[in-house]
Amino acid sequence: MSATAPPTPPSLPGEPDRPSRSRPQEWRAPLSERLEGRPVGIVGLGLIGGSLGLDLQAAGLDVRALVHREATADRARQRQLASVVSTAASVLEDCALVVLALPLDRLLDPDPALLRALPPDAVLTDVGSVKQPVLDRWQGLLSQAGRGGQLGLFVASHPMAGTALAGVEAGVVGLFQGRPWVATPDGRTDPGALALVEALAKAVGARWLTCGAADHDRAVAWISHLPVLVGAALLRAADQGSGAAGLGDLARALASSGFADTTRVGGGNPELGTLMARCNREALLACLDGYQEAIGTLQELVQHERWQDLAGAMDDAQRLRPTFLMPPGDTAPPAP
Amino acid sequence: MSATAPPTPPSLPGEPDRPSRSRPQEWRAPLSERLEGRPVGIVGLGLIGGSLGLDLQAAGLDVRALVHREATADRARQRQLASVVSTAASVLEDCALVVLALPLDRLLDPDPALLRALPPDAVLTDVGSVKQPVLDRWQGLLSQAGRGGQLGLFVASHPMAGTALAGVEAGVVGLFQGRPWVATPDGRTDPGALALVEALAKAVGARWLTCGAADHDRAVAWISHLPVLVGAALLRAADQGSGAAGLGDLARALASSGFADTTRVGGGNPELGTLMARCNREALLACLDGYQEAIGTLQELVQHERWQDLAGAMDDAQRLRPTFLMPPGDTAPPAP
Questions:
Q1: Distance between CA B220 and CA A238 in Å, rounded?
Q2: Residue B333: which of B209, B211, B202, B197 has the closest Cα?
Q3: Could you tell me which residues are beta bridge partners of residue B183?
Q4: ipTM (interface pTM)
């Protein structure tokens, strides 16, 4: 197997990349071979960065992590989130691949010291939940940094995995297993860089796919960003409404797994929710319009006691849910 | 310990019943002692009835189940959901306690053969998700059936537990563990009957509480019935919106655990969702109004780019969620 791969053509929007049995074997070169003994760098050890560090070390890789604060570094070392953890950007020296596991705001306005410390030949990827602004920003940054020839080494990507937690305590083993990890290459993306990030995703058991950045942002608005606001609004309404009726304590005592699940992402990391909305505002506003129409339709059926139509709408919902949870592309086995 | 308990005063609305260390020991008499060797009957072996049958048998009790169809009875016997399963109502003979684990519509319009077969001295309880109509209906039925003196033996109750499944395959061990089980006694409820249902709930590890039926119905509208419509509307909007943009396949390929959780109850049993709305229409309409106001407020913050206010709203949501999931009453240990 060779560490250099032929170009990977991005799949068409709406057509997730699916590994084919007819592909030559070198497409499958695992991460460890592609890295040729060089370490993987991770910038930020929150939920995504920390989980990645745990899984990559478990796969036998050398992981170097850069964090902002000394207290975070201490705790990350205790939790063994990376082989080496430092607050000095020089920790990224020698890394062949650097994962920018930063919140969207710090990704869009990165520390100049970080930019200077990134190895010039390293493949860079991010894990942000909005892709077009990140892709635009980093291609601009790399161009300004005099890395014009290396623009293609930035691969915008997004592992679709989360829990209700954030910060250095949040990282867990196996977070990415079976979850989508999507990259949004464009005409400038280096095929070898893209293949390396694909190998990274597969090393942690994720399901790899690619699409255009704008399509990504509009699609995740529906299935990731809208659910955050839907759940947050439920918490807000249930608190205010039950409280106004003098039933706040009773509603809380009766709340069970259904309420817990429906509000999990809505009651999750508030910075993440706000940044998603800020960086994907237009797409999210379109989703909110569509959502209000949908809830208004259901409300009308209840209002007018159209029970057969409501039963039909609930049947539709039951039929639709599995189509979102078992996508046809869900056949790629992990290739660590 | 005595099998006869002193009256249990219903807790005030909004004040979940909490066991106190100073209570006399007979309050704690477990279900097996209270039954004095007589079996427990379960009518219907769907998610709730089947799970109850499994847990009660595991606790060493004799469980007799009545189901509607022979095919269901066959499968229930294979799954060992009860000690005896039959389509003949006479299976309930001798039962000291009968749990009506029926859908709301069949609970509100029960089979006359079932009514005739209920042992006259048995305590009856239901598991419906709306309580006032059930309480009214069954007190009326028992009165018509010439059981005027036995009206108090009906205890309206509601175990707050669910999964995405329904039917004879749905029952699982441990479904009620740590979940609320609420009863809605009124002035006519027999204290001994209430204590027997409390012992039933505790035998399967549920957290017992009581409140008024009308308060129950308004409270669960917020934390149980509204989430069903919120999730169903999300499925509807995500399907239609992503499809209209030509991004239906991509949205499906990217949907992950956040979308799955937010839509779990919305994409669940459609009959249950429709019946909840039908039987609790007024309360649910008030919730839908409140919810639309809440989502509208968030939409306005995004629209007008009021990011600090949005961050505040998301902070509120994160702070509110645990107040619903860790109610102060969550301290009752299971007492099988």
A1: 10
A2: B202
A3: B157, B210
A4: 0.86
